[in-house]
Design goal:
Elements (H helix, E strand, L loop, with lengths): L2 E9 L4 H9 L28 H7 L5 H9 L8 H7 L5 E7 L4 H7 L7 E8 L6 E7 L2 E6 L6 H11 L8 E4 L4 E4 H9 L6 H6 L3
Antiparallel strand pairs: 1-2, 1-3, 3-4, 4-5, 6-7
């Protein structure tokens, strides 16, 4: 299960960012953290507890916390490393938080209703670099702009590098002009060693 890095930035009047961040913080960690339950609260009767197949059949998946969260949050888990997010917060207009398995653009769209006079910029990227990332701008529940690049495309890799704040080399990647995207150097080296690049087989063995 991949970890996701998320950034949320607030553009608005002085104090708007701090007000929003206070409204969505994990109270056990403090300002700079995010509790998804503060944005779209899970019903109070739905307890987080181990689920058996029998319980799911009996209650219906939509009435169990795992499926409810997936449907309403876009992920089955609340944020990760809340204490680290709070420790990283510098009091400014941007917070960093972590999720598991997915970004949470729909929840951030909902969060924008909490500060209708401000605009929110939200960006997310999987640590499975280049596979799932995106960015969106919201105001008062409306999507002003959004980008979700095709997985493994040049745009997806470069947005991921920007959000994860790591260069291609940190992932063993380099840009390949022929492919039009980034490739893993180790895989490319192996393919070359196996003769999968060029026309060497044809030239050497069948006289082409």
């Amino acid at each position: 299960m991949a970890e996701y890095v998320n950034y949320l930035r607030v553009f608005g009047a002085p104090g708007a960012a701090r007000a929003l961040f206070g409204a969505i913080q994990d109270d056990t960690a403090g300002l700079g953290s995010v509790d998804l339950n503060r944005i779209t609260p899970m019903p109070v009767w739905m307890r987080e507890e181990p689920l058996s197949a029998g319980t799911v059949r009996r209650q219906g998946g939509e009435n169990c916390w795992l499926d409810w969260r997936q449907a309403n949050w876009g992920t089955r888990w609340n944020t990760l490393k809340a204490q680290a997010s709070a420790a990283a917060y510098d009091g400014g207009d941007t917070i960093l938080f972590y999720t598991q398995d997915a970004g949470v653009p729909v929840l951030m769209q909902h969060a924008s209703r909490l500060c209708p006079d401000a605009a929110l910029l939200y960006a997310w990227a999987s640590r499975d670099v280049g596979m799932d990332c995106g960015a969106a701008r919201y105001r008062d529940g409306e999507i002003l702009a959004q980008i979700c690049p095709r997985p493994a495309s040049r745009q997806a890799y470069e947005l991921s590098f920007d959000i994860l704040r790591e260069p291609p080399e940190a992932f063993g990647l380099r840009y390949d002009p022929d492919a039009g995207t980034y490739v893993y150097e180790a895989e490319q080296k192996q393919k070359k060693e196996n003769g999968e690049y060029g026309n060497h087989f044809g030239q050497d063995h069948i006289g082409v």
